[in-house]
């Protein structure tokens, strides 16, 4: 195989929300992630869903190793059509399919978010309270119904985010709202979500900060 040419990174996602959030995180918050600036494309193929990305990403990305140094496939475990399997198993299966379809070892990775993307932008309650111009204690009381734990996390971040956002704004969460959360999320390195930690580990291995 010849050396790849073109961009640093191709990210394949399942929906517009994931595309918007990852464009912010990987486009403008690389310093917070502890990686160098990237030349990247975040790709969402029209009509695809999480299950399509899980089952067919190797087809969508076949031959793309010639144009991108690395690739990451991101999809939600919930909606993958294989929810009975651990998210880690889905990642391993997809990474094996990518290798069989031309991607060299350690140049492509899969990340299955469990439960969903909103876990990545769910910051400290003080940050979220500021988003809705409310008091942190008031927000904490509202989130009790969503299995709020001692660390300020909830079991179902998508449902919690949408319900609380609508309660305070009388409108649904938009892509712009998620992008704002991604831009203002405090210390990204403190996110303990398993899938996010895997993404961070992979990106730091591939794109370490350049020391002058």
Short description:
With 212 residues, the protein is of the alpha/beta class. The chain folds into two domains: 7-117 and 188-206, Rossmann fold, CATH 3.40.50; 123-184, no CATH class.
Would you spell out the secondary-structure blueprint of this structure?
Elements: E1 7-13, H1 16-28, H2 30-33, E2 40-44, H3 50-60, E3 68-76, H4 87-100, E4 108-113, H5 118-121, H6 125-131, H7 136-143, H8 157-169, H9 175-184, H10 194-206
Parallel strand pairs: 1-2, 1-3, 3-4
Helix pairs in contact: 1-9, 3-4, 6-7
Count of individual helical segments:
10
What's the multimeric state? single chain
Number of strands: 4
Mean pLDDT: 91
| Rg computed from alpha carbons, rounded to a whole number of angstroms | 18 Å
**What is the approximate shape?**
globular
User: In the residues, how many domains can be counted?
Assistant: 2
Order of helices and strands: EHHEHEHEHHHHHH
Poorly predicted runs are none
% residues in beta strands: 5-15%
CATH topology of the largest domain: Rossmann fold
Q: How are the strands of the biggest sheet laid out side by side? A: 2-1-3-4
Query: Structural class, judged by helices and strands?
Result: alpha/beta
Largest β-sheet summary:
4 strands, parallel
**CATH architecture label of the largest domain:** 3-Layer(aba) Sandwich
- CATH classification class of the largest domain: Alpha Beta
Distance between the termini: 31 Å
Percentage of residues assigned to helices: 40-55%
Write up what this structure looks like.
This protein is of the alpha/beta class and 212 residues long. It folds into 2 domains: 7-117 and 188-206, 3-Layer(aba) Sandwich (Rossmann fold); 123-184, no CATH class. Helices cover 46% and strands 13% of the residues. It has helices spanning 16-28, 30-33, 50-60, 87-100, 118-121, 125-131, 136-143, 157-169, 175-184, 194-206, and strands at residues 7-13, 40-44, 68-76, 108-113. It has a 4-stranded parallel beta sheet with strand order 2-1-3-4, with helices on both faces. Helix 4 links the parallel strand 3 (68-76) and strand 4. Helix 3 (50-60) runs parallel beside helix 4 (87-100) and helix 6 crosses helix 7. It starts with 6 loop residues before the first strand and ends in a 6-residue tail after the last helix.
